[in-house]
From TrEMBL:
It comes from Aureimonas jatrophae. InterPro entries: RbsD-like_sf, RbsD/FucU_mutarotase, RbsD_FucU. One of its GO terms (molecular function) is fucose binding. Keywords: Isomerase. PANTHER family: FUCOSE MUTAROTASE (PTHR31690). One of its GO terms (biological process) is fucose metabolic process. This is L-fucose mutarotase. It catalyses: alpha-L-fucose = beta-L-fucose; beta-D-ribopyranose = beta-D-ribofuranose.
Amino acid sequence: MLRHVHPLLGPDLLHALRSLGHGDEVVIADANFPSHSLGPRVVRLDGIDAVEAAEAILTHLPLDTFVDRAAFRMAVVDRPDEVPPITDLFADAIARLSGGDFPIEPIERFAFYERARRAQLIVATGERRLYGNLILTTGVLIGNSVPK
């Protein structure tokens, strides 16, 4: 038994997250995303939406403060200036749980797939809202990260 671990994070996802290092990227993917055909390790969270998954992951995962952008979303096809409603929910979770200003950068669909190919982990969720995809760049732990 473990304490202080978000209840949505099972042993496979905990191991995968713990294996990440500074600068590694994790993709939180919606149900339509081609998670298994891109190459990186995939951990499934069927039945969990992408915002819940992001909240669970961000409870433990620091974002990278050494880069210009540490969070990315897929841009709407043929409407790159449109911001899907789920983006505001991702932004809220990031703001609440990351302790910093991390704007979410839009990336064209195929460029998003290419970036996802280079990620270390894809978390495949049951998210059914369109454009429910997010890439997060892992930061560093600062100071004593073990609760007393």
